[in-house]
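Journal club prep, notes for RB
We'll compare a predicted complex against what the paper describes. Inputs for the flavin-adenine dinucleotide case:
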Amino acid sequence: MTRGSSARDASPRTILAFDHGRRNIGVAVGQSLTRTATPLATLRARDAVPEWAALARLVEGWQPQAMVVGLPLNMDGTEQDTTRLARRFRNELERRFGVPVHLVDERLSTREARERLARGGRAGADDDPVAAQVILEDWFSQNSRRELATPASRRGTIFEEEARILEHERFEAGQHRLRMQSPRIAGTALPGSFVHVRCDALLPMRRPMSILEAEREMGWVDLLFKEVGTGTRLLARKEVGARLSLLGPIGNHFEALPGSSRPLLLGGGVGMPPVVFLARYWRESHPQLSPLVLLGSEVPFPFTVCRASAGPQLPAGADTGMEALERLGVASRLASRAGLEGCYPGHVTDLARDWLRRLPPEARREVALYACGPVAMLEAAAALAEEYSLPAQVCLEEYMACAVGGCAGCAVRIHGPSGPAMRRVCVDGPVFDAHRVVWPRADASPS
Ligand SMILES: Cc1cc2nc3c(=O)[nH]c(=O)nc-3n(C[C@H](O)[C@H](O)[C@H](O)COP(=O)(O)OP(=O)(O)OC[C@H]3O[C@@H](n4cnc5c(N)ncnc54)[C@H](O)[C@@H]3O)c2cc1C
Ligand code: FES
């Protein structure tokens, strides 16, 4: 991203583009903040009329805020038969889906698509979606960033900041807490939102990290991460005073579910930060709620552990908690299968089930579940919510490239009113209704 550009304060918009033809229609998806486009699919058409049901599924899946259609013209700029057909297609798109549909001169897009495929060693491959990608890139280059930006009020605002490391705390098993001076991100971060971190100047791809805590007045955010690969190992070497580029806060956030005065917060491994942030945040903003935070880890916990306060009815053995939460008066308990002292010897979701089982039915009706962690844990949490008919939100993690909605690399399937639809974890999430997620195990089982 260019420094100083208006895109710093812009929020991403999703745009679908079409290379319209009589038999095939190439489709690409793009995003206004990075102004990048990705080939998506080829739809079949008969006499230039698309299979509208298939096209509607794509629109339902991507929910674009605008569309772009390539306008075929002769090389001298005059119109041809297919120009009229493309205009008709454009009008029909606008009528059916109610979003603005722009036309862009598509001369040479097919040639450019074929050249790109040949350069990538894929000569002869389907060029229609690549032509749609070229059309969308052309349209981006002809429109200013300001015009493409969604008003901040609609999507929230993403900032790029050169954040200075204020503290770097190291824990066992390659775990680290970084405190970063990042006032604009700290000013708008909410529990569940994340930052995209440039771990090192040598590494072009950023890495997503949840926000563990945000202090608005002091202008810092805390991140908690574990070394797993190149990016996090480079991050682990950074010392106090170093500066890192952060893009954020990205994504939506957890919300207090109405009528649920007993939030049950579950965090596993590097999924702990959003739920710890949530518990702290509610202490200030929703003091009437009495959350119980259950955290699970298979390595020593990356924070000070203390004897947990009396209160929630939990099995003997689960008698330690997170000191920082206990000091705030938030009840917490720890679970681990690694034999850690004072921890419940099992999965965090089993500890949660134990607590739910002990609650009187009228108290159970006031529980809502909020979880972040590995996908297997989240799937178990969603099953628990189903078993006890609890409203539930989960914060998902997916492999991410752009993290601002442009590459579709993080898409997951979420049930919508007309069936499962693709949603991007980075900008449509990362927090989703747990009952709407198409979980990998459920998805793999025969229908
Ligand atoms: C929204 C979001 C929030 C996240 N928050 C945190 C956090 O607070 N703390 C933290 O430690 N990690 C978090 N992660 C995961 C973190 O982004 C990855 O661990 C990191 O990108 C790995 O980068 P790497 O270069 O070190 O590893 P790579 O060399 O890229 O990969 C090394 C290993 O990490 C795994 N991995 C890579 N990317 C991801 C990913 N996106 N999700 C899950 N596993 C991955 C791979 O399976 C691989 O085994 C989050 C991921 C997302 C999507
Ligand atoms: S769309 Fe690129 S990571 Fe989400």
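Talking point for the session: The domain at 262-395 is CATH 3.40.50.80 (Rossmann fold).
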